[in-house]
Amino acid sequence: MRLPNLVCMLCNQYSDTPVCSFCKFDTRFLLQLNYKGNLLRYPAISQQFRHTGYSCLRACGEYVWPFDTLIHNTKFKRCLISPSILANWFVEMCFDDDSLLPDCLLPVPIQLRRFIRRQFNQSTEIARQIGRAIDRPINTDWASRTGGKTQSGLSRAERLLNLRQAFTVQVPEDVHHVAIIDDVMTTGTTADVLARQLRAQNPDIIVEVWAMAITLRKPLTKARL
Asked: Is the pLDDT of residue 28 over 50?
């Protein structure tokens, strides 16, 4: 009988879990830096992201090890364990005791040619795992990407111009509070464009953005609460 591969997917050392306790201990979560709950409350973070359409940002950590490794494995190696790890960490690390959960989760859509090549959307896989953990539905038909270039390598101004006509959005019925799910946030432009289109159709809707990791221009230190 073949035994399971009992190694940590990050350090390749023995582990009875996909990520060993040592690697998790070495992970730099935003919560451990006293950045918790709505990250837009902290100027060190909020000033780095465009957020005219959403009122709350939650994320696990900065886009460095191990988040970059887990997200890369999800997107390019079709590792379906990584979304589960990211989702579990997000649920564990990103909510205050008084956090109000949204009515549904909305994964960021990807370009059709990317979906055909990968056969999955990494944001959808993460949203499914989070949805199971917090008992919330996901809606994968709320938006589609109809044009625009890939955002990678574009400046903040170029990203905004590129995305203005890139999406078609439909507000889900009978919802008043939603969370847009993304794997990594670089400038916030994609999420902000989507949030603004949701609010253009329903000005009263509450929009949050949940990202597994955020890319920052300046490293964070412990927040003064």
From this structure: yes
Angle at 101 between CA 92 and CA 110, to 5 degrees: 80
How do residues 172-182 score in pLDDT, each as one tens digit? Answer: 888 999 999 99
User: Which pLDDT belongs to residue 78?
Assistant: 80
- What would the pLDDT profile of 68-120 be if each residue is shown by its tens digit? 999 999 888 888 899 999 999 999 999 877 778 999 999 999 876 665 566 67
pTM: 0.90
Q: Which residues make Cβ contacts (< 8 Å) with residue 111, sequence separation at least 6? A: 145, 148, 150
The residue type at 208:
E
Please list, in sequence order, all residues whose beta carbon lies within 8 angstroms of the beta carbon of residue 78, skipping any fewer than 6 positions away: 118, 119, 120
Q: Sign of torsion, CA 32 24 69 147?
A: negative
CB-based contact 209:191 (threshold 8 Å): yes
**Contact predicate 214/59, CB 8 Å:** yes
SS (H, E, C) the chain: CCCCCCECCCCCCECCCCCCHHHHHHCCEHHHHCCCCCHHHCHHHHCCCCCCCCCEEEEEEECCCCHHHHHHHHHHHCCCHHHHHHHHHHHHHCCCCCCCCCCEEEECCCCHHHHHHHCCCHHHHHHHHHHHHHCCCECCCCEEECCCCCCCCCCHHHHHHHHCCCEEECCCCCCCEEEEEEEEECCCHHHHHHHHHHHHHCCCCEEEEEEEEECCCCCCCCCCC
